[in-house]
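Attaching the record inline, Q. Sequence:
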Amino acid sequence: MAVKSITMFAALYKKQMRETLPEIVVVASVTVLIGLFVYFKLGSLLSAVAVAMVMVLGLASFLPLISSLRLGQEWNNNTIYLMMSLPVGGGMILGSRLTALLTQYILGTLIVGIVGMLLAFGMFPDDFGYYLKLSLPYWDEAFLLYLLTVMILAYFISISFFSQIIGKLVSRFSGLVTLVTFIGTLWLSGEAMSLLWGQVSIGPPDISTQLLAVSVGQITLVAAVIMTLAVLIYDRRVEL
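Structure, as predicted:
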């Protein structure tokens, strides 16, 4: 049974990854083109490398959130009913979609990171090793910060899924209901995280590491709760 579930999840995940492939190609293409422009036209400006990579990172972060809106389009294309006829629950359907979107983000940011490092090395080979050694003590914080960005994206995608499912429960003003639900869920979850922060005690040493770790834990918990609600409503209220 477990093997069958894993196989089904893998099949759903592959389907979602095929849908996200164009966005991944866009991020990779834009990153390479901007990198080439910076290298050949602005080769003496370190700030140009940083600004260019930040811009592409914004694109890599924004596209998965936009792609999450495809869930609502499933109803418009009537493909949602085909998905619901499969012997799988909402956990697998929404979970595979969430996993694919996070994979899209991770691949996009990795591409940007690799191109950025190659640019920095190619443009400033003498300084690259020096600054790389200086950054080594902060890699733990850097990893936690990156993990936090992944979970923030998962949080917004979970709210997106939840809002779209709620919107599809009504026959009229579905878009408005989706928007109101998104804003309301964002506000309520923000209040919940504020309350959770009030229960946290952080002190030296490694205050920054503790702050990042707590932030990752809290936003992961809230995202999991919202995703669970989305799955429950999908399974119990959305009908063929």
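Residues 2-41 form the longest helix (40 residues). The mean pLDDT is 81.

More tomorrow.
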